[in-house]
Amino acid sequence: MSLRLLFLIAALIFSWIFALNSGRPLAFNLAYLLSGILALSYVWAWTSTRAIRINRYTRARRSQVGQYFEESFEVRNQGWLPKLWLEVRDFSTVPFHGASRVVSHLRGRSRHRWQVRTLCQQRGYYRLGPIRLFSGDPLGLFSVDQTLSQTSDLIVYPATVSLATFQPPIADLAGGEALSRRTQYLTTNVSGIREYAPGDSFNRIHWLTTARTGRLMTKEFELDPAADIWVFLDLHSAVTRSLPWELSRPDPGVFAFSGRTRAARLELAPSALEYAVTAAASVARYFLLRNRAVGMMWHGSQRYLLQTDRGERQMRKMLEALAVVSAEGQISFDQLLVTEGVRLNRNDMILAITADPNPAWARALREIRRRGVYSAAVVMDGSTFGGLDSYEELSHELELSNIPAYRVQRGDDIGVALGTAVVSGK
Length: 426
Fold this sequence. Notes:
Layout: H1 3-22, H2 25-48, E1 52-58, E2 62-64, E3 68-77, E4 83-90, E5 101-106, E6 110-119, E7 124-128, E8 131-136, E9 143-148, E10 152-157, E11 190-195, H3 207-213, E12 217-221, E13 229-233, H4 272-288, E14 294-299, E15 303-309, H5 311-322, H6 333-341, E16 349-354, H7 360-369, E17 374-380, H8 392-400, E18 405-408, H9 414-417
Parallel strand pairs: 2-10, 13-14, 13-16, 16-17, 17-18
Antiparallel strand pairs: 1-3, 3-6, 4-5, 4-8, 7-10, 8-9, 11-12, 14-15
């Protein structure tokens, strides 16, 4: 209860006591006036949020670090009475999502719209909503609010950068053996015919065999004979380095109304994990755009394995998984490579992404290569993210093992850093 309302109630009580005791007409008129003001203000406030409908329109509930997330809001007055003022407060968890707004002088049977564009600076899942609607009377005596509890989710994918080239080139990767396993893609390699299973595409049905047997039969395809790419991401909590950083309110100057969906320059948090996640997403995108099969493996709070596949659907799965990873792993990177590397096929390729300066994981890659598994490394230089470890011994081990390596430092353009390997594999 506001101080202004308390003062009016006290004045109303005093005026009625004075009028009843004095019997003067002026005192009664004053009491009637204060009573009318109080009653009218209450009724005004009570009706101020009635017949109001709020809609929010989200173009897409998926965005990416460095891109703008857009939403449109509409406040509609479905009644005939005008609304003096309405305050819309949005309680979304998206950082600096300035969707709250004050709408004034909303006439009856009219609407008010506005658009919000927010630069996504951090990957993860965010909540959109709820919304609370506030209003009141012109004198500010009474305030009412209404909560719209509907919520939805927004996922912000990690950033990806375009890579003009990545060593080894696609043409230099060795081919593997055709894999006899179900795949959603139609290839030129048909391994056989089997009975129809729920979920099989109708264009796989072999109609001649179906007509002969009287049962639906589908063709079984093999994956193309090409080496699979496996991205191994190190999430060990002991090796991930980061500097203090806070989200900053983006400058709306140039890009606020330019219609662009991506910021001019990508700025990542000064964390080795964020740079590693961006590098993993970028390299996976590089190979998937060239129709290579890519899979992912890491040990964070739990083991994660994404089997190799191709296409946009695989890219979306990777981005969704990378959007929520955190450095909570307790398994060292060399143990991860030794444990999971034995599952790979000959001629597969391991892309190791880590900030671990321990050369043990480089030796693990060298041992895996004896089984015909190719490897390359992307090393996040932890010394530029606040760490004190030296990477000289690791660099020497990678050079002796002829493992192509890329070093990424804080502030580097990842697209440029991944364009040239420090060590050329043989």
